[in-house]
Task: inverse folding
């Protein structure tokens, strides 16, 4: 059994000191690893990421993160990535990490992902250069994610994204913006890679639960959706399915 604390869209700014770490009390007894599904900051400014990094230094369990679109806004991706890594956070972008948890090899494949839309309502790699660039970025994110998942030699295969692989967890968002919230290419990567569960954020107005066409559970852990600092999920290999034990931490401040 492994226990995953997961959250996305914490959107730290320069005044967010100690907002997350106050929920780390006894976390070691509740979870084995923390996953952060991107949009860690408001604009991706290094000063914002430093505030979060100070919080995450106090996390008693390993932290694995991907960046979100907000973390790219001011073009300081390398700097903010380094700030997280110096705080001990494992930052993934189209690569993976294998952790040893309770004698299991737990593989986590991470990518920001991208938009593009879903079956019957998606963009195409055709026409203007800008449109082709958009869809090619979407496809390359998915293609590299699939290869990363397949290459992991692990007992559990977990996918960590910012953008959504399914429209199911977007319910509540305006349909017009679905193509900017995720891509079904990501679901194909998850299914072809045979992942056990996928987490994402980005869709603040969506819902927590969905699944890929192949039946892989998908959880939207954006803080405005889960309404807590994080949720804790338990994975049991014997049943090869997911249980949400609904152990939740109260948020004193909504992001
Ligand atoms: Fe967000
Ligand atoms: Fe986002």
Result:
């Amino acid at each position: 059994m492994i226990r995953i604390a997961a959250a996305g869209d914490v959107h730290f700014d320069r005044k967010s000191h100690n907002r997350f770490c106050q929920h780390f009390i006894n976390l070691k007894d509740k979870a084995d690893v923390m996953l952060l599904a991107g949009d860690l900051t408001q604009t991706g400014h290094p000063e914002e990421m430093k505030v979060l990094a100070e919080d995450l230094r106090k996390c008693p369990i390993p932290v694995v993160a991907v960046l979100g679109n907000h973390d790219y806004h001011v073009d300081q991706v390398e700097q903010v990535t380094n700030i997280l890594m110096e705080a001990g956070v494992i930052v993934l972008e189209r690569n993976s990490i294998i952790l040893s948890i309770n004698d299991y090899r737990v593989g986590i494949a991470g990518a920001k992902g991208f938009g593009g839309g879903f079956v019957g309502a998606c963009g195409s790699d055709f026409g203007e250069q800008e449109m082709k660039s958009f869809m090619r970025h979407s496809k390359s994110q998915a293609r590299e994610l699939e290869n990363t998942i397949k290459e992991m030699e692990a007992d559990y295969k977990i996918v960590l994204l910012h953008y959504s692989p399914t429209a199911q967890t977007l319910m509540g968002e305006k349909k017009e913006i679905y193509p900017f919230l995720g891509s079904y290419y990501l679901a194909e990567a998850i299914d072809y890679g045979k992942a056990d569960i996928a987490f994402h954020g980005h869709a603040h107005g969506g819902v927590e639960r969905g699944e890929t066409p192949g039946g892989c559970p998908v959880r939207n852990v954006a803080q405005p959706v889960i309404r807590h600092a994080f949720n804790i999920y338990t994975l049991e290999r014997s049943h090869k399915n997911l249980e949400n034990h609904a152990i939740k931490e109260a948020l004193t401040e909504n992001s």
